[in-house]
Amino acid sequence: MHPVLADDLSRLPALLQIARDFAAKEVAGIVERPVARLDGRSEPAPLPLEGIGAEGALAGFAERWAPGFSGSAGPRYLGFVTGGATPAAVTGDWLTSAYDQNVSGGGDSSATALERETLGWLRELFGLGEEHSGAFVTGATVSNTVGLAVAREWLGEQLGIDVSRQGGAALGPVDVLSGTPHSSIGKALSVLGIGRDRLRTVPALPGNREAVDVGALATALDALDGRPAIVVANAGTVNTVDFDDLRAVAALKQRYDFWLHVDAAFGGFAALSPSYAHLIDGLDAADSICVDLHKWLNVPYDAAVQFTRRQDLQVRVFHNASPYLGLPTDEPDFLHLTPENSRRLRALPAWFSLMAYGREGHREIVERNVALARTVGERIARAPELTLSAPVRLNVVCFTLTERPTRERVHALGRAIAASGEAFVTPTVYDGTHALRAAFSNWRTTEADVERVLDAVLTATGAVTGEAGP
Ligand SMILES: *Cc1c(COP(=O)(O)O)cnc(C)c1O
């Protein structure tokens, strides 16, 4: 063994203690860490010839890289839809690395059964029945890709084509219909060889909505003359968190032949609250479902879950048959269900967080985030220089400048907010107008944080519009 490696091995408990102390300091400091670091790069260093051991590596990291890391896991980072990591989730994540299980097959470890237990809990959390089976994947983009891959296989089944053998081209052009799809749907269609251009957007409901007009969807399906299609329903759009009427969309299956995939990346968490669960009514009727976990479950990157009612088709797409792996059984190993073969035990952080805080603890996070988003929405609506782009439906506040919301001015406002180090929001275009989004999905965020966010937003607005601050 290399002497430095041997030395690290001999003092492993001490090294883990040093890492623990460092992490504890950094995590405790996250509330005051600048929310975004726009200048945190370090020049690339040469590949080390002689190593310096784990403690030396930690010192080098602490000096050169850690200062540039953002507070994106903290309470006032409101960009995209960004969760943090609950204490229990971090514990689970550390142990995931410490145990380093490969959850591809189940033969030699209980880790596979732990992933299945966690999947069962998540299924219950989102109100799904036993017919839905699932797997952990790295994020909602991959979850959507898996769901649409199963959809593509289903299209083949409808047309008498084995897509996994004959290739997607055998299907000919595929019809994919959706109201306000997330950008990852286009990416998934590109990866799957269906093609980004095959995604057709169906009009949304009138009146500042992003939810699909189900009547227009029916018309679009009707025009396919019986050709089977894929419908992507959206349960929580990123700009205004609007929800397609999942029950009404699913009811169209009685008249038309389509696979229903639901992108519930973060909107799925509405199911945790009796106040918002109605938004996601009908989710169980979906053929495949995507839910992100590194967003509103507040587990560390990278984790999401996918569910489907057709595990048999999923195995057809993803099975990895070889003499030493064998063919999938009734309870297929995860390597036969996901794009990955070797897999991290990314169920463990979720298992820890659900074990530690339960359904109620996670419900409280969701409801607090929504309440805080509403507070911010009300205060922004009262500021004459700012305008809400849409009502705050759940956990995202979409707003813009009242006067001249040009790209230049709105982006300048976003940069000024980030430069304060106090809050971070991301630019978007909503209904043809440049706007900013503040998304609340972090377990730490409190009312005091909201005051700091509002101060930062209103001061930056004053600077951009030339008015005095608050
Ligand atoms: C975030 C998001 C995605 C993509 O999620 P990743 O985890 O970044 O891959 C897909 N759909 C929706 C609705 C999202 O909010």
Describe the structure.
Helix 4 (87-99) packs antiparallel against helix 12 (347-382), helix 6 (140-159) crosses helix 11 (311-318) and helix 12 packs across helix 14. The strands form 2 sheets. The chain has a 7-stranded mixed beta sheet with strand order 1-7-6-5-4-2-3, sandwiched between helices. It has helices spanning 3-10, 12-28, 53-64, 87-99, 111-125, 140-159, 163-166, 183-191, 214-222, 246-251, 311-318, 347-382, 407-419, 447-465, and strands at 133-137, 176-178, 199-201, 229-234, 258-263, 288-292, 304-308, 386-388, 396-401, 426-430, 433-439. The termini are far apart. It has 470 residues and is α/β, with parallel strands linked by helices. The mean pLDDT is 96. The chain has 2 domains: 26-97 and 357-470, Aspartate Aminotransferase, domain 1, CATH 3.90.1150.170; 101-343, Type I PLP-dependent aspartate aminotransferase-like (Major domain) (Aspartate Aminotransferase, domain 2), CATH 3.40.640. It binds pyridoxal-5'-phosphate. Pyridoxal-5'-phosphate (PLP) is lined by residues 81, 139-141, 144, 182, 184, 236, 238, 263, 265-266, 292, 304. The site of pyridoxal-5'-phosphate has 14 residues, from helix 6.
